[in-house]
Specification:
The chain is mostly beta strands and 209 residues long. 10% of the residues lie in helices and 44% in strands. It has two helices and 15 strands. It has a 15-stranded antiparallel sheet, with no helix packed on it. The longest helix has 12 residues.
Length: 209
């Protein structure tokens, strides 16, 4: 869902309300369009999401099409949410800062129902250098792939059951295949498998008691 229709409908509604209306006055102050002086095209639109009289959202526009939004949810002067829109103006992904330092280091993608389907994480806060991928099913974490060495190759695979870690497979020699797999039951390690054959099947299993 894009914020654009809400912004324009809200701005249009404000124009019909008397100047004495405090909500209308707040909206006039915080819903501010910026236009390209040469072309007259709308390039930015600001918005007050929480209706407290402070601008907290800046949306870059290509005329009537939103491109991206920057949001300061807690109004501490640092952006903590980044919204990216597709060609149809629909929300495509949302960036957020786990470190709360004003830099996006994780990006969430939704499925057709609007639920989180995948989160991509970068330990270096670079969206072009993702090193952890989280996959969700029905709103719960289902599996994870990770590049723990930062060499651009996945070397750890995790599965989850009801939100708890179920298995963790690790590539220890860098050949792109798991060499060891740990199995957990209710968060407790119960088995270690190793020595995979040519087909990738583990030939050794040690029960942990």
């Amino acid at each position: 869902m894009t914020i654009l229709p809400r912004l324009f409908l809200f701005a249009a509604g404000v124009a019909l309300v008397a100047c004495s209306d405090p909500d209308a006055a707040r909206a006039r102050k915080t819903t501010v369009p910026t236009y390209d002086q040469r072309t007259g095209k709308l390039t930015q639109l600001t918005f007050d999401r929480n209706k407290n009289g402070t601008i907290d959202t800046w949306t870059d526009m290509d005329g009537t099409r939103p491109l991206r939004s920057r949001v300061d949810l807690d109004e501490d002067g640092k952006i903590d949410r980044w919204e990216y829109y597709d060609a149809a103006g629909n929300l495509a992904k949302v960036g957020f800062s786990r470190a709360n330092n004003g830099k996006a280091d994780a990006w969430a993608f939704s499925d057709h129902d609007g639920k989180v389907a995948r989160i991509e994480i970068s330990s270096t806060a670079d969206e072009h250098r993702i090193d952890r991928w989280e996959f969700y099913e029905n709103g719960q974490l289902a599996r994870v792939e990770a590049d723990s060495k930062g060499d651009g190759r996945v070397d750890r695979w995790e599965t989850y059951e009801k939100g708890s870690l179920k298995t963790a497979a690790i590539d220890e020699n860098g050949d792109g295949r798991p060499d060891r797999r740990l199995t957990y039951d209710a968060g407790v390690l119960v088995a270690i498998e190793s020595e995979p054959d040519a087909a990738g099947r583990f030939t050794k299993r040690v029960e942990v008691k």
